[in-house]
Amino acid sequence: MCGLEFPNLVMQRYATKRFDGRPLPEDRVRQLLELVRYAPSGLNLQPWKIKVVTDPALKAQLLPATWNQSQVTTCSHLLVFCAAINPKEQIEKVVAAMRKSGLSEEAITQYTRSTKDFVVHVKPDQFRSWAQANVFLALSYALLGAKALGFDSCPMGGFDPEAYAKILKLPPAIIPTMLCALGYAADTPHPKVRLPLEEILI
Question: The domain containing residue 58 runs over which residues?
Answer without folding.
Answer: 6-186
